């Protein structure tokens, strides 16, 4: 019966014969390896990149190490080469509203050309405008206007002076302007003493004349100011004419060059008008020799910076669509920002300080980011969604909508967005976003799912070999012999924990290839052999298994109590897996059960101590269902049981120990000892069927190492679910021990098969409602009947005692009454 369930050595590991590979070494292999084993993800990516329309952005999900990022970049690069080159984008000054710079789109390469042309235009204007204003013709016209003004002022003032002289007043020119002055008959200014000597009538006449002349003087001065204004306007018009003449042919030439672009022509016309209106910027450049004046002019926006062109997207050297991989997707790195600089204790800025973000650079192409990085940066996820929803890139300060008060800043004109966003992340991130973010499912409609494994077919093995060959070639490693490649393929199956699968976590495979090349170099091998690969595997394990060896040592010394010999009632060796970073190993644990009279409760001590997770708790609850369905069809389940992982001080999760817990329960109920030279793993359902679990290889190797440390006796082994046989990829030393009969592995499908192996006693099948005598199930049923009888007896005794107490509390009946007579008869 035992041998019916024992696995053969050939079932424990699927080896690959190097002769079947068809090559001697990786030097014989050539060819591309593109997205090995990821056909589903590849089709999704190709669809997402080709599909136009809003919302068809791509979320790439899969385990880290499956080559998600590398493969995505390769596909995107191939697609981007065939796409058109996107336009340049520039920001220019908005002369009507400088706080809102204008965005202009130009064909690839023309943005830089426009910037260069505008810089040359400004240099030409800087040279020509001062020269025009220093010309003799300009000086003559300016002098003529000044002379004309002087003549007109002289004429107007002469008329006023004549009228004043006739009334006994004169005109005096002072820094404050022209003033009326009283004069004596000789024409000299009248002193205060002389004025006081006048009679009252003369004083009154003088004061009246003065008031009348002041009114006339005011009118005259109004005429003078009007003449000055006319002269200033004439000078301004002269300046405009000179400026227009000086810059006209330069601007006309640019307008002709950009005649196909209306926005540029409109902008150049605005530049022309602004230069003409603010020509003093160029005339006074030489006068502003001191830095303070220059900085004040810059702070007021009156320098030539206003005519510059800020190229934020330069596609001059771009061939095809851009691909931007943003490794630090902060808010400003995504949508751009307006930089500021400190001047005189204040922060100032202008449109030339607008900086592009990743969305600007990727416009017309692809933006690739890690989902976790986007989600962990404040406001970045909101920025991504806003750009994709609105279809435009709008630069604004981070958290502007949450500010308590507004601040003055630039508001650059938004730029239309045409970006295909590719987010890369773990599956749990995708499903959380899909569940809790309503906008996510509308914006990322394409899911590219990278699997962690692929079928182990001849084609897949060939691709694995090509991967090794290309990785060796690209990184300058030593070539691999066919035997070494076969060992790498076996390592890939071990990573996948399946004989019929290969792992697609190529980052781990690539690391093993590099480590094997290193150890081959240390050994002086010109080519990597299978021994070098095994050396790399062993060394990697040794670097990580200090805790495993420490636990094994404690078991050997008896500090952690695990028996590998003998038999004990209600005690089973369970197997669990411990994860320490990238290293996992199997750890045997003693599981014990105690049964006693109760009401059908199965208590997990680990659960009561809050050391177990929900899955483990579910597994324990299933045990009560199994016992009730198997043994309590015609009598109550009158037991209580306690289960625990002995010497377990950390959390317990998973249901892979539920079968071991059930065996311990059955052993305790039947009073049958369980062999301690066997360890058990596997979950169980209510029907008593053993279900598959994870980590079967690590669990078997963990118990084997403990048995080897304590001494192999030849009858030790492990019970695993039959469904896990294909998951076995055991170490060669374990396989050899099985082949030599020193260790045994049994595959079972039911609890009955397991209990027979563990006790050496038949489980027993129910016939005509009863189990055969001497079987484990018969003993369990008998013990449950005993427990039920004990419970029943105690219940009856309790009821009688309660009834007696109730009678004693009732008052005694009268001696002649009918109840008293009936009570006497009952006592008799």
Overall description:
The protein has 828 residues and is α/β, with parallel strands linked by helices. It has 4 domains: 14-35 and 453-544, Helicase, Ruva Protein, domain 3 (Orthogonal Bundle), CATH 1.10.8.60; 38-86 and 318-450, P-loop containing nucleotide triphosphate hydrolases (Rossmann fold, 3-Layer(aba) Sandwich), CATH 3.40.50; 131-283, no CATH class; 549-783, Ribosomal Protein S5, domain 2 (2-Layer Sandwich), CATH 3.30.230. It is built from 29 helices and 29 strands. The strands form 10 sheets. It has a 7-stranded mixed β-sheet with strand order 22-23-21-20-25-28-29, sandwiched between helices. The chain has a 5-stranded parallel β-sheet with strand order 7-12-15-1-16. Strand 26 (683-684) and strand 27 form a beta hairpin. Helix 18 packs parallel to helix 20 and helix 24 packs across helix 27. Mean pLDDT is 86; it is low at 286-290, 292-301 and 818-828.
Named at the architecture level, the CATH assignment of the largest domain is 2-Layer Sandwich
Strand order of the largest sheet: 22-23-21-20-25-28-29
Total of helices: 29
Number of domains: 4
Q: Name the overall outline.
A: elongated
What is the CATH topology of the largest domain? Ribosomal Protein S5, domain 2
Strand content: 15-25%
- Distance between the amino and carboxyl termini: 65 Å
Q: Structural class, from secondary structure content?
A: alpha/beta
Give the rounded overall mean pLDDT. 86
Helical residue percent band: 40-55%
């Amino acid at each position: 019966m035992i041998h019916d369930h024992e696995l053969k050595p050939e079932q424990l590991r699927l080896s690959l014969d190097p002769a079947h590979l068809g090559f001697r070494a990786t030097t014989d292999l050539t060819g591309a390896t593109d997205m090995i084993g990821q056909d589903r993800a590849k089709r999704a990516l190709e669809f997402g990149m080709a599909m136009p329309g809003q919302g068809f952005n791509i979320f790439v999900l899969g385990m880290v190490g499956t080559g998600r990022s590398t493969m995505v970049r390769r596909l995107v690069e191939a697609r981007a080469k065939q796409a058109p080159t996107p336009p340049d984008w520039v920001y220019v000054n908005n002369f009507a509203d400088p706080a809102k710079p204008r965005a202009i789109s130009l064909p690839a390469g023309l943005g830089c050309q426009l910037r260069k042309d505008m810089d040359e235009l400004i240099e030409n204007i800087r040279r020509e405008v001062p020269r025009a204003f220093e010309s003799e013709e300009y000086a003559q016209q300016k002098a003529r206007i000044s002379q004309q003004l002087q003549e007109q002022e002289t004429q107007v003032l002469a008329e006023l002076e004549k009228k004043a002289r006739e009334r006994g007043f004169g005109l005096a020119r002072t820094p404050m302007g022209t003033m009326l002055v009283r004069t004596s008959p000789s024409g000299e200014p009248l002193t205060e003493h002389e004025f006081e000597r006048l009679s009252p009538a003369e004083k009154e006449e003088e004061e009246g004349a003065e008031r009348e002349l002041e009114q006339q003087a005011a009118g005259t001065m109004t005429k003078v100011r009007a003449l000055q204004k006319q002269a200033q306007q004439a000078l301004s018009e002269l300046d405009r004419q000179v400026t227009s003449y000086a810059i006209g042919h330069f601007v006309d030439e640019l307008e002709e060059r950009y005649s196909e672009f209306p926005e540029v022509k409109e902008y150049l016309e605005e530049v022309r008008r602004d230069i003409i209106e603010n020509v003093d910027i160029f005339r006074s450049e030489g006068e502003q020799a001191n830095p303070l004046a220059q900085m004040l002019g810059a702070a007021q926006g009156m320098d030539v910076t206003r005519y510059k062109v800020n190229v934020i997207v330069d596609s001059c050297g771009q061939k095809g669509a851009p691909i931007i991989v943003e490794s630090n997707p902060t808010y400003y790195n995504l949508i751009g920002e307006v930089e500021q600089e400190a001047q005189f204790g204040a922060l100032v800025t202008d449109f030339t300080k607008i900086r592009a973000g990743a969305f600007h650079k990727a416009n017309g192409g692809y933006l690739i980011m890690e989902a976790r990085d986007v989600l962990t940066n404040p406001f970045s996820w909101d920025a991504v969604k806003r750009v994709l929803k609105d279809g435009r890139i709008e630069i604004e300060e981070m958290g502007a909508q949450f500010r308590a008060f507004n601040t003055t800043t630039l508001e650059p004109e938004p730029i239309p967005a045409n970006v295909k966003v590719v987010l890369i992340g773990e599956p749990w991130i995708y499903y959380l976003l899909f569940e809790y973010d309503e906008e996510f499912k509308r914006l990322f409609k394409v899911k590219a799912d990278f699997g962690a494994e692929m079928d182990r077919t001849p084609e897949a093995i060939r691709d694995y070999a090509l991967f090794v060959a290309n990785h060796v070639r690209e990184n300058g490693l030593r070539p691999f012999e066919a035997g070494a490649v076969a060992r790498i393929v076996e390592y890939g199956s071990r990573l996948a924990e399946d004989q019929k699968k290969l792992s697609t976590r190529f980052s781990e495979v690539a690391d093993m290839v590099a480590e094997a090349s290193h150890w081959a170099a240390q050994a002086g091998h010109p080519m990597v052999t299978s021994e070098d690969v095994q050396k790399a595997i062993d060394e990697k394990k040794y670097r990580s298994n200090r805790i495993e060896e420490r636990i094994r040592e404690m078991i050997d010394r008896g500090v952690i109590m695990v028996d590998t010999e003998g038999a004990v009632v209600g005690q089973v060796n369970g197997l669990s897996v411990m994860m320490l970073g990238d290293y996992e190993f199997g750890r045997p644990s003693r599981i014990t059960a105690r049964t006693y009279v109760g009401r059908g409760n199965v208590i997990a001590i680990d659960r009561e101590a809050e050391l177990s997770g929900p899955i483990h708790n579910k597994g324990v609850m299933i045990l009560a269902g199994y016992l009730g369905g198997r043994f309590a069809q015609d009598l109550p389940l009158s037991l209580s049981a306690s289960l625990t992982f002995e010497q377990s001080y950390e959390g317990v999760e998973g249901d892979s120990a539920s079968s071991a817990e059930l065996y311990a329960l059955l052993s305790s109920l039947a009073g049958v000892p369980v062999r301690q030279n066997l360890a058990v793993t596997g979950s169980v359902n209510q029907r008593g069927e053993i279900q598959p679990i994870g980590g079967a290889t690590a669990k078997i190797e963990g118990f084997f190492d403990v048995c080897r440390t304590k001494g192999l006796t030849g009858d030790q082994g492990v019970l695993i679910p039959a469904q896990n046989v294909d998951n076995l990829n055991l170490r060669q030393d374990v396989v050899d021990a099985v082949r030599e009969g020193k260790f045994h592995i049994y595959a079972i499908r039911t609890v009955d098969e397991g209990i027979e192996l563990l006790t050496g006693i038949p489980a027993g099948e129910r016939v005509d409602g009863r189990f055969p005598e001497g079987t484990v199930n018969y003993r369990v049923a008998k013990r449950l009947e005993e427990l039920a009888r004990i419970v029943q007896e105690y219940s009856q005794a309790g009821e009688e005692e309660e009834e007696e107490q109730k009678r004693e509390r009732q008052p005694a009946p009268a001696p002649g009454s009918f109840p008293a007579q009936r009570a006497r008869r009952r006592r008799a």
